[in-house]
Amino acid sequence: MTLTIAGLQHAGVPGDVDANLAIIEQAARDAVERGASMLVTPEMLVTGYNITGSLDELAALDLPARVADIAKSVGIAIVAGLPLPRESGGIYNALVVVDSHGIELTRYRKTHLFADLDRSLFSAGDELPEPIDIDGVRLSFLICYDVEFPETVRAAALAGVDAIIVPTAQMEPFAHIAEQLIPVRAWENQVHVVYVNRCGAEGDLRYVGRSSIVAPSGERLASLGEAESGLMVATIDPDATARARIANPYLADRRPELY
């Protein structure tokens, strides 16, 4: 089994949930036409990311249900970046995963908060996600800054995942993360990495784009430029993951007792 994934690079419309959901729905329809079974959006695309004041109000809406409606209507699994309310107050920077029938499969709350921007807006999640299987392909999930910590990706690789899905909102001056670090993360862990960024500007942030789907070999299977809005599409093949782990046996050759 394989899984064809479309990643949507887009600026979104800050604070306008209806507009952003319309963008996601159109992208979902385009993704299906291009043979994809899953659509991945950037970090916080449903509401906007750097919008401060209105996030609490927007997080109180049942945003996962609206994403699920789109997934069911179009017939495609969706990984959507959005805020989730915290029971004791505050909000999480999160993602939800729904299948093509609109059934929610998992939620993940960003565990590593980036600088004052994240810390002023969000509470940190306190656990990494359990892998899930879609169409026989084993997946895990991180959000933006999470992937910059080698331990998070290694934990997913040791759990046997074929791909790590990473909605992100990477801004200047950090283009080197998209250009250099993401292929290294894929190579050193023998996993596919689906890195889906925003483009354009939002408040005082200018996003660097450069979304990519990277094979376990470090090869970019699909990518977009700095300012492109649109879809990139590539197929995740578990056999490629298995071959990579034979060719590059980092995981098997580890000596964790030394670490």
How would you describe this protein?
It is a single chain. Helix content is 31%, strand content 27%. It is of the alpha/beta class. The protein has a single domain, classed as Nitrilase/N-carbamoyl-D-aminoacid amidohydrolase, CATH 3.60.110. The strands form three sheets. Strands 5-4-3-2-1-14 form a six-stranded mixed β-sheet. A six-stranded mixed β-sheet has the order 6-7-8-9-12-13, with helices on one face. The protein has a two-stranded antiparallel sheet with strand order 10-11. 48% of the residues are buried.
Number of strands: 14
- What share of residues are in beta strands? 25-35%
Q: Name the CATH superfamily classification.
A: Carbon-nitrogen hydrolase
Return the domain count.
1
Q: Mean pLDDT, rounded to whole units?
A: 97
User: How is the quaternary structure best described?
Assistant: single chain
Derived structural class: alpha/beta
